[in-house]
Amino acid sequence: MNALETYLTKLIKAQGPISIATYMGEALGNAQHGYYMKKDPFGQKGDFTTAPEISQMFGEMVGLWLGVCWLNMGSPDKIHLIELGPGRGTLMQDILRAMKVIPGLLDSIEVHLVEMSPVLREMQAERLKGLITPKWHNRVSDALDQSNGGPLLVIANEFFDALPIRQFQKTGDGWHERLVCLDEAEKLSLQLAPVAAPESIIPPALLRADEGSITEVCAIGENLLSEIAEYIQRHSGAALIIDYGHDRHGTGNTLQALKQHKYIDILSDPGDVDLTAHVDFQRLKEIAHICETKTFGPVGQGDFLKFLGIEARSQTLLANATDKQAKDIQTALNRLIHKDEMGDLFKVMAISDNGLSGIIGFE
Length: 363
What we know:
By secondary structure, the protein is α/β, with parallel strands linked by helices. Helix content is 39%, strand content 23%.
């Protein structure tokens, strides 16, 4: 039993079963023992690899998209660029390099990084040294406050999938929340709450789901998107969300744990494994529409990147590549855009204020 599992056991003994959202929050963000607070999880030596770590082309395409948004906004003298969950800083590094080709853009940008992990903040600072000096924030609301009512660009790549979710399972008398409890051997296990949850928590489209169905609700993600969309509608701007998930409300248990690139039980080694769940893009769209912003997509990541010209960019890189470099470029391109790799599984969605036109990548 590791340190966080010991803490969670004591917590459950003291107050009873906890929600999966509480479990995820502690497993990923506990100040002392949380997964993201104490280690670098990325790359071959970590537990998973994200698109920016696969190839510079991904970040360059995102930088192009953000640059076009800036131009369509009238090239404001100052604009705030917020990245949610910036990892090692690789994506922002590639974004800023791509932005150099647009005159005046880099001079107008103030970069904000929403990052709680001290380990990753150090890596981001080192990666961005000489390019830009960002401002770091623990919360999205802090970054928005620091934007002081100025126009905004937001990028969230593989951020919403790591936000804590609650799970509910349909039974004969309604939807019961799945909770983390202790079994007879005092090991972490799952059980259903004895009392059904209010149906208002469940998306209306799922209320008639079959008995035994599981649905997931990410209230934190909904609240964060609402904050961003409300800001964008008031002060102008756009946001790009890239993540794996589904484009329609659906049922199913998508919560998963990864360790050293392999799936393991979600209750194993809390704090030492990555926990994620599929993003409900339809719900994010509904929230954006409530805030009266425009939405685009979601579309598959492959189609989005191809529209922006990633295949042409790969040809440019191949022109001066060694045989090994060429093989790596082709492998990376395939992984990013092929439907059997990240091309369909990962979705891309954008929101913008109603006055902004020319959003690219979604035709």
